[in-house]
Structures are given as structure tokens and as C-alpha cells.
Amino acid sequence: MPFIRSDEAVVHKVHGGRFVSYVRPDTGSRDLAAWRVEIPAAMTGPTHTISEEEAFYALSGRLRLTIDGESAELRAGDAAVAPAGSAVAVANTTDQPAHMWVTTRVGLTAELADGNTITPPWAH
Q1: pLDDT class for 1, splitting at 50, 70, 90?
Q2: 89, 80 in Cβ contact below 8 A?
Q3: β strands within 24-83, DSSP E
Q4: How many CB atoms within 10 Å of residue 122?
Q5: Are 55 and 79 a contacting pair, CB within 8 Å?
């Protein structure tokens, strides 16, 4: 099934963000996972090391994205790529929510700074 309707999206709330999953194996994807993440105002997500490459596209607002210690502010229309094995962190230091589209490979895992590994359900 190549078309995914908005009512098929699944919402996950993790670390203060809202992850709205569209592309995943149960919607027909074998290789890719893609979701929209909503980052509230004044939210800083935890640094995590990713197992797969991730592509980020800012949809609205402003975000501070850090990849392996290098930070940049993304505004709507900006994009970034984090290679597999890199440490990633996202922060919204503004007083407005921001939205980003993220794409990766199915099976992504993320290791947190405390050594715990999470398996995001939106990437499986």
C-alpha cells in the first residue's frame, strides 16, 4: 500500500516530544521509517547515539540540532543529516513549538548517555 493517510499515523510521546509515525513496516515500508516530531517550546531532548543514519527537515519554528558536538539552528526549510553512530540532540530554545520531519532506516536504535538503549516504536 503506497499511500498513508493521516488517520493511520500513530502518536508516541517520549522525552517531552510528540512523535507522529507515518512510514513504518505496518504501513507498507520495508526499509524506511519516517515521522513528524513536535518539539514544544523550551524543550531540550536527551543526547543519544543513533544506530542508523537520520535525515532531518525543519517544517516550522526553530530548532537547535547538535550532531557529534557541532550545533546549528534549523529554521523551516533547513535540513541536516546525522551519520550512523553519531551523537544527536535536539533543543527548542524558543517560546514557540517547532516541527521536524525525520527519516531513517527501519530498525533504528538509540543509546542514551546513561547507557540505556531505546528502540523507538516509530522506527520499527
Answers
A1: low
A2: no
A3: 32-39, 43-44, 48-50, 54-60, 62-67, 70-75, 79-82
A4: 23
A5: yes
Q: Which three cell numbers stand for residue 107?
A: 530498525
110 residue type, one letter? A
Spatial distance between the Cα atoms of 21 and 23, rounded to a whole number of angstroms:
6
HSE-CB at 75 with a 13 A cutoff on CA atoms is: 0
* Grid cell locating 90: 535536539
pLDDT tens digits for range 68-110 = 999 999 999 999 999 999 999 999 999 999 999 999 999 999 9
Strands 87-92 vs 117-118: parallel, antiparallel or unpaired: unpaired
Distance CA 79, CA 94 (A): 19
> Is 92:64 a contact under the CB 8 Å cutoff?
yes
Mean pLDDT of 15-25: 95
What cell numbers appear for 102 in the block?
525525520
Written as nine digits, the cell of 33 is 521509517
Q: For residue 37, which of 54, 59, 70 has the smallest C-alpha distance?
A: 59
